Amino acid sequence: MKKILVTGATGFIGNYVIEQLLQKGYSVIATSSSLEKAKEATWYSQVKYLPLDLKNLDDSIDYYTYFENPDAMIHLAWEGLPNYKETFHVEENLPRHYKFLKNLLRNGLKDITVSGTCLEYGMKEGCLTENIECKPDNSYAIAKYELWKKLAQLANHSGFHFKWVRIFYIYGKGQSPKSLFSQLDNALETHEKVFNMSGGEQERDFLHVEKVAEYIIQIALQNKITGVINCCSGNPVKVKDFVEDYLKRQNKHIELNLGYYPYNDYEEMRFWGNNLKLKSIKND
Length: 284
Prior knowledge:
Blueprint: E1 3-7, H1 12-23, E2 27-30, H2 35-39, E3 48-49, H3 63-66, E4 72-75, H4 88-106, E5 111-117, E6 126-128, H5 139-158, E7 161-167, E8 169-171, H6 180-189, E9 194-196, E10 203-204, E11 206-208, H7 209-220, E12 227-231, E13 237-238, H8 239-249, E14 255-257, E15 271-273, H9 276-282
Parallel strand pairs: 1-2, 1-4, 2-3, 4-5, 5-7, 6-15, 7-12, 8-11, 9-14
Antiparallel strand pairs: 10-13
Helix pairs in contact: 1-7, 4-5
C-alpha cells in the first residue's frame, strides 16, 4: 500500500485530501502544527498523525525518517493566510518551507507535490497557461513563486519527481471565515437582508474544494506530467453571476449590495486558468 505524507492536514484543502486518500485505500501520514485540532478531524483515527510545527524546525533531524519514509508527499502547509501582503511570507515562510522540503528530499523522499497559487502569475489578464512569465506582486505570491524556483532547480540536479499545483479560486465548507462564500453563508445563516460585496464584475475560475482535492491527488499520484500544473476549471465566470448561481442552487435569497467594497489591488479584473495539462492527467 502506497504511503502518502500530507502536510497542512487540518487546513481547508488538507482535510478533503486526506478523506479522499483514505477512501481510495492509501496509507496516510498526516502532519500539522496542532495535535488538538487534528484530534477533532473525522480522519484522525484512520491515519498515522505526527505533529510538526514548522516554526520549530530543526534541520539536524531526518524528517524523512521521522515521517516513516513516505512514498510520496503532498505539501499543503502554509502559515498566515489569507494575509497576502504581509512580509512574513517571504521573510519567514519561504526559507522555512524550503529548508523543510530540502531536508526530506536530501534524506530520501523521491516524489513531491506542492500547492502553489494562481497569484504567482501576477497582474495578468485572460487565460493563463503554465508557461507564461510570472510577475507576482504580493508577498504571498512572491514567496510561493520563489519556493517553486528553488525546488525546480533542486529537481533538475537531484532527479526527484516534482509537481507544482497552481490553485485558482476555491470554495466550500471549512473555508476561511474571511472568504467571500464563508461570509455569504454566515449572512444567510443569520438571516441578514443585505450582503455587501464588491461590484462583482471580476471574472474568476472557481472550483469546489472537493474537486480541488480530487485533482491534487490525481496530479500527485502520477509522474508522466510534472512541473507546474494549473488546478482550475478553465471556465471564467463573473463573481456576481457565480454568487447568484450559488444562491439559486441552495434556494436562498439575499439582496446583493454590489460595489460596497473596492476591488482588490493585487488582482486583474479578468483571468482564469488553462487546464489542458490537468485534463491530460485526468484522462490518462
